[in-house]
Amino acid sequence: MRMAMSLVSRVSRLHLVQRGVLFHLNTARMASSLLINEPKYSWLKELGLSEENHGVFNGTWFGSGEVVESISPSNHKPIAKVIQGNLSDYEKCVSASAKAYQMWCEVPAPKRGEVVRQFGDAFREKIDILGRLISLEMGKIVVEGVGEVQEFVDIADYAAGLSRMFDGKVFPSERPNHMLLEQWNPLGVVGVISAFNFPCAVYGWNNALALTCGNVCLWKGAPTTPLTSIAVTKVLETVLKDNNLPGAICSMICGGTDVGIAMTKDERIPLISFTGSTPAGHKVSQAVHDRFGKCVLELGGNNAIIVLEDADLNIAIPAIMFACIGTAGQRCTTTRRLIVHEKLHDQVVEKLINAYKQLRVGDPLEPSTLYGPLHTKDAVGMFQRAVEAAKAQGGTVVCGGKTMQREGNYVEPTIVVGLKHDADIVLKETFAPILYVIKTQGFEEAVQWNNEVKQGLSSSLFTQNLNHLFRWIGPKGSDCGLINVNIPTSGAEIGGAFGGEKHTGGGRESGSDSWKQYMRRSTCTINFGKQLPLAQGIKFE
């Protein structure tokens, strides 16, 4: 009996050892399948990334939530793993952010600007390698990835100058020995929820201005670009450490919808800056306004380019190309409608088809590539459904219209003609490289069609006619937040305010006086005399 039990025991131990060996073998295989472990992508480790990364930062790196893999859209392979945050982790971030605000808001604005300037310098040093990460994880071509980091650099420089230029006003008082002035103060914790298509730049716009104004940031990036969120935050962490400042000034959490919902409902976050779809933005707006918080919304854009009969096609065609296929049609400013004067319609379509056929498609990390993949498999399905809907509603596909038979989320950039200006699919924003070309008889009709969609983000007019130019930017012209002449709808500079009207949300980020959205304004009346005169001459004696 003892011999039998001993034999069973030895067999059981052997079985456990075998299972353990098998487990370690499987774990090793899983780790080796990650791109970060391939020599070609070893540069990822220079950004502080590893096989498995903590996805929450509040001065300390941690994470208690689900472990997810970041997938490269160009080959469907996992890049690395991220331990996301849960609601308990979120609570730790908010608490740390609120504590950090108490000291940060008292740092003089020019000194805050100096720290933000150092952010810009730190990103200059990492610009190429961060641009490659964005390209690998998001799917945009590497030159666009680098350009996105450049936007963070530019807005950091802008914010550093702004830190010495906040301008309140002093007003004449109707009462003797009284001063009437305007004082701007920070809000507190600014929540930033950004989208996959610009996983670095949009946060940069918010971060640089919010911090310079005296706020702290709590950032939730897109769930599908967590490695970019982590790498960007590691750069910021280094600068904060060098200045002996708490890391929670730039807290970050990778997480799911539950974390985003918690942010929108949290009264400790007076401002939520949200970038995403119009339906999601509507929910965010309702949740924030239910608690009387503030929103900066940057939502959808069903953008149009108008080409009049006097347009210079030598600049119009390349502009249309970039606006339509840049970031594979996944910019909020991508051109989705091309309204062309009937005399030029066929010529413009022919030139675009020829240009599309010469497009260099490939790995977005290759410098020669001009067109990469869509971000997810779901986006490919959305593209396919939109093409079929366009056909069903009377459109003719004259270029593209299919998925590409290659590894990754590649689809053909597509041109559709023959649709009515108000066809359902034309009026709907599809986040894909599909262009609807529509004939117009003239300027007034084209402007009307530009304005008939629910969104109002970006628009562009190609003309040499000064009358049309100034009417286009006037009260009866384009109703968009970005109104362009002889340039693409995409590729805005940081010096101007970025944002749109109507269902685009009305928010403004980046330049001009966008900083005011990150502050509260107080009108201050100071009596420095010995009498108490009341306004409007009221006597209360």
Description of the structure:
This protein has 541 residues and is an alpha/beta fold. The strands form six sheets. The chain has a seven-stranded mixed sheet with strand order 3-2-10-9-8-11-12, with helices on both faces. Strands 15-16-17-14-13-19-20 form a seven-stranded mixed sheet, sandwiched between helices. α3 runs antiparallel to α4, α3 runs antiparallel to α6 and α4 packs parallel to α5. The chain is globular and about 80 Å long. The protein starts with a helix and ends in a 14-residue tail after the last strand. The N terminus is likely disordered.
Keywords summarizing the entry:
541 residues, alpha/beta, seven-stranded mixed sheet, disordered N terminus
How many strands?
24
Q: Structural class of the secondary structure composition? A: alpha/beta
Physical arrangement of strands within the biggest beta sheet: 3-2-10-9-8-11-12
Mean pLDDT: 94
Helix content: 25-40%
Radius of gyration, in Å, reads: 27 Å
- Principal-axes shape call: globular
Residue runs with pLDDT of under 50 for 5 or more positions: 1-5, 11-29
Short recap of the structure:
The chain is an alpha/beta fold and 541 residues long.
Topology summary:
Layout: H1 2-32, E1 52-54, E2 56-57, E3 61-62, E4 67-71, E5 78-83, H2 87-104, H3 109-138, H4 142-162, E6 170-171, E7 178-186, E8 189-193, H5 201-212, E9 216-220, H6 226-242, E10 250-253, H7 257-265, E11 271-275, H8 278-290, E12 294-298, E13 303-307, H9 313-325, E14 335-341, H10 345-357, H11 377-392, E15 396-399, E16 414-417, H12 424-427, E17 434-440, H13 443-451, E18 455-456, E19 458-462, H14 466-472, E20 482-485, E21 497-498, E22 501-502, E23 509-510, E24 519-527
Parallel strand pairs: 1-5, 8-9, 8-11, 9-10, 11-12, 13-14, 13-19, 14-17, 16-17, 19-20
Antiparallel strand pairs: 2-3, 2-10, 4-5, 6-7, 7-24, 15-16, 18-22, 21-23
Helix pairs in contact: 3-4, 3-6, 4-5, 9-10
